[in-house]
Specification:
Helix content of chain A: 25-40%
Number of helices of chain B: 4
Order of helices and strands of chain B: EEEEHHHEH
Largest interface: A-B, 33 and 38 residues
Order of helices and strands of chain A: HEHEHEHEHHEHEHEEEHHHH
Number of helices of chain A: 12
Largest sheet of chain A: 9 strands, mixed
Helix content of chain B: 40-55%
Distance between the termini of chain A: 53 Å
Structural class of chain B: alpha+beta
Oligomer: heterodimer
Number of strands of chain B: 5
Shape of chain A: globular
Strand content of chain A: 5-15%
Largest sheet of chain B: 3 strands, antiparallel
Radius of gyration of chain A: 21 Å
Strand order of the largest sheet of chain B: 2-3-4
Strand content of chain B: 15-25%
Chain lengths: 366, 100
């Protein structure tokens, strides 16, 4: 029963944005705030560096499972929900799942390759799911490079066409690109495509292993020269500093010094198509399975999750104690565990990136 | 200040959750995040295109130890603020706009 509270309704104090503090609060109070759900590993493209473990087996979650799962997430206070894959639109119940997410007032992100988002599907996505943003993957500034990565001829031309369609439909769009040895000479061209459609482009400087540990994708990791070029282009575009070369998760660095490295398992989770729950999409250490277990139970009483939360606190010490003139940008305990077996060990690829950055001059933010 | 007989609803692009003692409100169309205190969060919960402002205030008067006139005044001012911020809309205005 709700008790009477001695609080005034203060219109003057009630619209203050304090999002950083809120995010930090979710980390510190273990408030589930964001979830990434991999709906399926099916895909209409065949990307060379796809990180999904296509041999993973299990009982796929069905529409009713997702409906129950989303209800639980809402009860836990989760606001941000990312529908990912594979290609999420390849799930036979994608629109019903997305509509449920909308009904429950999630801020929905859809991570898609964009290949199937023609006028009809883009329209349905807008009207039935109304996502906050649609994130599409671009792998190069020309068909030769993009199609080399997707291994589907015509995928570049189709994506560019669909970007036009998505914008015309009123969808908010963002482009994600992993910087690779194949596309590192096309950075300006990829920004030009993003500019043409007036959408943001985020470049991830790291290619990670597959979720089954296969390191083959790392063969096309960007070269040090490619990384330097990315830094130069970004600095030129944003008039910023070298520290802008961040991985996606680094965007959650906040004004106040947090007590841990990241929100993995503290405010965020990832769930694969078979119901396995992970602390983060990049930290593939299962902490439970929603088949037969409630998400609330997994979230609230879980020794494995306690261990993850302890490790993210220790990971902060790894980064702050790193012997370098620049921050250990992009350190990820999940990737570290995948590459070294130890979530607190700094992988060679992360050290290399930090070293490259330390060679570059800092430009003042203007 | 909005009339007590008006009915409001959250705009279609609004998403929100209560986190701790505040509500985080996302205005999708503006890509903007706002934070409301716990009392503001309760007002937002109660605004559902079904209740008049007077009914919202009546519900809250059983929950908060505040004089009724003071509560009514504060809620009206708060609703005016979130209406101006594009978080809620007066349902009757929407209807009259459609008729027009």
């Amino acid at each position: 029963m709700r008790t009477k509270r001695e609080r005034k309704v203060s219109s003057s104090q009630s619209l203050e944005p304090s999002y950083d503090e809120t995010i930090l609060g979710t980390w510190e109070n273990h408030h589930l705030f964001s979830a990434l759900v991999e709906l399926t590993y099916r895909c209409n493209l065949d990307c060379y560096f796809c990180y999904n473990d296509l041999d993973l087996a299990g009982d796929p979650l069905r529409l009713a499972d997702y409906e129950r799962l989303f209800e639980e997430m809402r009860t836990l206070g989760c606001l941000h929900l990312t529908l990912s894959g594979g290609e999420p639109l390849a799930h036979p119940d994608f629109f019903a799942i997305g509509a449920k997410a909308r009904e429950l007032d999630f801020v929905v992100r859809v991570k898609t390759n964009g290949h199937g988002l023609d006028r009809e599907l883009a329209g349905r996505l807008r009207s039935e799911v109304d996502p906050f943003i649609v994130e599409v993957s671009l792998h190069g500034a020309c068909a030769e490079t993009h199609d080399r990565q997707t291994r589907v001829a015509g995928s570049f031309d189709r994506l560019v066409h669909n970007l036009d369609v998505m914008r015309a439909t009123g969808l908010r769009v963002k482009i994600n690109t992993a910087l690779t040895r194949w596309n590192e000479r096309e950075i300006e061209g990829m920004f030009a495509i993003a500019d043409r459609f007036a959408v943001p482009l985020t470049l991830d400087p790291e290619v990670t292993p597959r979720d089954n540990g296969d390191r083959d994708p790392m063969r096309i990791s960007a070269s040090p020269e490619g990384l330097r070029h990315l830094v130069a282009v970004q600095a030129s575009r944003r008039k910023g500093t070298q520290a802008e070369v961040l991985r996606e998760g680094d965007a959650e660095i906040h004004s106040r010094d947090p007590d841990r490295h990241c929100g993995a398992g503290a405010s965020g989770i990832a769930i694969d198509p078979y119901g396995n729950v992970y602390p983060c999409v990049q930290w593939r250490r299962a902490i439970g399975n929603v088949h037969g277990s409630s998400l609330q139970g997994i979230w609230r009483a879980n020794g494995k999750l306690d261990e993850i939360r302890r490790l993210t606190v220790e990971a902060k010490g790894v980064v702050s104690g790193h012997d370098s003139e620049v921050p250990l940008v992009g350190f990820c305990p999940g990737v570290a565990e995948m590459l070294t077996g130890d979530p607190l060990a700094v992988p060679e690829s992360t050290s290399t990136r930090a070293n490259v950055l330390s060679e570059l001059p800092l430009h003042p933010v203007q | 200040m909005p009339d007590l007989n008006l009915v409001f609803r959250r705009k279609d692009d609004i998403r929100y959750r209560v986190v701790g003692d505040e509500a985080i409100v996302v205005r999708q169309n503006a890509a903007e995040v706002l934070a409301l205190n716990d009392v503001g969060a309760r007002v937002l919960e109660l605004i559902d295109a079904d209740k008049t402002l007077a009914q919202v205030i009546a519900t809250m008067s059983g929950e908060y130890d505040v004089r009724p006139d003071e509560l009514a005044n504060d809620v009206q001012r708060f609703v005016a603020a979130i209406r101006d911020a594009g978080i809620v809309v007066d349902v009757s205005e929407e209807v009259s706009e459609k008729v027009r």
